[in-house]
């Protein structure tokens, strides 16, 4: 696959569908590599690699969700020939929502299911913006989010390299706000961390106002980054859901 936007982490001979995974702010496709051993082998795992990280580190990160979703859509639209699912965590869920909007508007085959993990709904504005802060204050804020390893936060040279990408991601995510969002007609599963104070269950329930299709909710043990701390519990939910959806396709 000669596509900088996608890494096919696995391709099995008996795959019935593809799961596209979109990372959180500051994350790369590497956060999903462990999923291959936990995901059922009838699912191909396609990891989205955004500009500014991993093999695309030399490219500038994109701080505008319209532009980013437009480019991502153009890159992956040839890969919708068989059943597929889209998973996005936090910022990745925001991008996944925008991507599904474009897929629906283009009248292309829709995902069997959209999985939104710890993702703030578009009609809820972010209240504590940080992307504009000076470097020292921004790094201090990162420490409170527990999403960046201490050894990276304490490495000034490395942080200087990563900050443009991190700030671009935070700007994109913190400015994600649509008071009258476009409804999407895609079955959706919304996942909530039981101790997530950034995107609590009450806030996530507002996704039901945006999803004009079946919208269900599940809780995963942990805080905002339960994707990292409760990976096995998360994959149990995802495996169960994906297999149930595939049974509907083959019925």
TrEMBL record:
Residues 18-240 form the Thioesterase domain. SUPFAM superfamilies: alpha/beta-Hydrolases. One of its GO terms (molecular function) is hydrolase activity. Transmembrane segments: none annotated. It holds the Pfam family Thioesterase. The keyword Translocase does not apply. Coiled coil: none annotated. Keywords: Hydrolase. It comes from the Bacteria. Belongs to the thioesterase family. This is Alpha/beta fold hydrolase.
């Amino acid at each position: 696959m000669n596509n900088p936007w996608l890494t096919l982490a696995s391709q099995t001979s008996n795959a019935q569908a593809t799961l596209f995974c979109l990372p959180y702010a500051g994350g790369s496709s590497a956060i999903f590599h462990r999923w291959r051993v936990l995901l059922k082998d009838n699912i191909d795992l396609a990891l989205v690699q955004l500009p500014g990280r991993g093999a695309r580190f030399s490219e500038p990160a994109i701080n505008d969700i319209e532009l980013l979703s437009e480019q991502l859509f153009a890159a992956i639209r040839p890969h919708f020939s068989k059943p597929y699912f889209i998973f996005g965590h936090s910022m990745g869920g925001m991008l996944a929502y925008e991507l599904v909007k474009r897929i629906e508007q283009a009248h292309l085959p829709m995902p069997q299911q959209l999985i939104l993990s710890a993702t703030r709904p578009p009609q809820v504005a972010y209240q504590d913006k940080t992307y504009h802060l000076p470097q020292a204050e921004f790094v201090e804020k990162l420490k409170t989010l527990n999403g960046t390893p201490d050894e990276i936060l304490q490495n000034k040279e490395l942080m200087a390299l990563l900050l443009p990408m991190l700030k671009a991601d935070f700007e994109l995510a913190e400015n994600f706000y649509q008071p009258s969002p476009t409804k999407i007609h895609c079955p959706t599963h919304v996942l909530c961390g039981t101790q997530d104070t950034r995107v609590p269950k009450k806030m996530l329930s507002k996704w039901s106002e945006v999803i004009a299709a079946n919208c269900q909710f599940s809780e995963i043990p942990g805080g905002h980054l339960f994707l990292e701390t409760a990976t096995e519990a998360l994959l149990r939910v995802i495996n169960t859901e994906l297999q149930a959806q595939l049974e509907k396709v083959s019925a």
